[in-house]
Design a protein that fits this description.
Length: 183
């Protein structure tokens, strides 16, 4: 199974949610929080080409081709780690497709000398907070991401749904009823 940005995001939020999502249980369409996030995304950066689908696996919110930046728009920074790894996954995925990504060497001799093509980097945009966070795919992050991908695959291969967690954000999760009904 090819992973999406949502898989990566959910891995950092809740393994149970990741497992359910991977089996086609999608509760996002009933969530007011998800709806608000979509409205913010749609109303921000209106002149940009949005929702760039690549291979049906990743969807980049928008691309600044001139500066070589992929953008992910989020409502709040409360899940910033999940957002950061989602963007790192996009950069890693594009690198696998041959795109020059920040941190890649552009010549066989290891130099950047004479290279005019910008290297791609990521940015998380929080329009409501008027904040931006730069995301770079370093070798260390790439190695860590490969371990994360392996861990995600291990979770998805499990026969049983992972245990639920009890975090403050559970009450606003679109999967809340699946986890906490009859409790």
């Amino acid at each position: 199974m090819m992973l999406t940005g949502t898989h990566i995001n959910y891995y950092f939020i809740c393994h149970r949610k990741l497992w359910l999502f991977s089996r086609g249980v999608q509760m996002e369409q009933t969530s007011d929080t998800v709806l608000l996030g979509k409205l913010i995304d749609e109303s921000s950066y209106e002149r940009k080409e949005k929702a760039i689908d690549i291979d049906g696996n990743i969807v980049i919110d928008w691309l600044d081709e001139k500066n070589g930046v992929i953008h992910e728009v989020k409502k709040s920074d409360s899940m910033e780690e999940a957002h950061t790894w989602q963007v790192l996954y996009y950069l890693w995925y594009l690198k696998q497709k041959g795109v020059l990504v920040e941190g890649n060497l552009q010549h066989g001799d290891g130099s950047d000398e004479g290279c005019l093509q910008p290297r791609l980097r990521g940015e998380i945009d929080y329009p409501k907070l008027k904040q931006k966070v730069e995301v770079l795919l370093t070798r260390e992050k790439e190695e860590e991401l490969e371990k994360i991908l392996s861990s995600i695959q291990h979770i998805l291969d499990q026969e049983q749904v992972p245990d639920r967690i009890n975090k403050r954000f559970c009450k606003t999760c679109s999967y809340y009823d699946l986890c906490w009904v009859n409790q």
